[in-house]
Specification:
29% strand; 5 helices; 170 residues; transferase; Aminopeptidase; globular; three-stranded antiparallel beta sheet
């Protein structure tokens, strides 16, 4: 058996070309709408090509957000989204949300993707970014701290306690 070199990870705009790859990533997570960074809503129908195309079109045309998929070759490994508004949504969920499919975790992909999205946030004029994660999500805490996150407290929400971090952009 020959090992094939792994493709370099990349951040790309959502695309209908990767419909089957995205479905494989979703199936890796299991049922539910919990893939942070994908902007998936319970009402989104993504199994059919037309439904998937409508969802991708919505993602690429959302004012106040930048959605990217984390890919290697033709594999979708996760998603990351930069939210610029509305302010009340950002206050609760932060400027950036991300998620890595379970089978691709532990490789530093979230840290890598967050670093690149922070560059994009700076290029859009942000000087400080709020990131929020579940209180018990130690992997996300490490990802945020590796990118310069400073702990800013815990907030109580309907989703449970959420840790807040601020990252100052240079």
């Amino acid at each position: 058996m020959t090992d094939h070199p792994r493709a370099e990870p990349a951040l790309i705009a959502p695309t209908t070309r990767l419909h089957h790859a995205w479905l494989a990533a979703r199936d890796d997570w299991g049922p539910g709408v919990h893939e942070d960074g994908f902007g998936l809503h319970p009402s989104d129908e993504v199994d059919s090509p037309p439904g998937f195309a409508a969802w991708v079109a919505r993602l690429t045309d959302v004012p106040g957000s930048v959605c990217r998929w984390i890919v290697e070759g033709d594999r979708v490994l996760g998603g990351i989204a930069l939210r610029l508004g509305p302010a009340d949504h950002v206050r609760v969920f932060g400027h950036i949300g991300y998620g890595i499919r379970p089978s691709a975790r532990g490789r530093g992909l979230a840290t890598w993707a967050l670093g690149r999205m922070l560059v994009e946030a700076g290029s859009l004029g942000l000087t400080e970014v709020l990131l929020v994660c579940e209180d018990h999500n130690t992997a996300s805490v490490k990802t945020i701290e590796r990118n310069g996150g400073t702990f800013d407290g815990v907030q109580s929400t309907d989703l449970g306690p959420l840790r807040r971090y601020l990252i100052t952009l240079r």
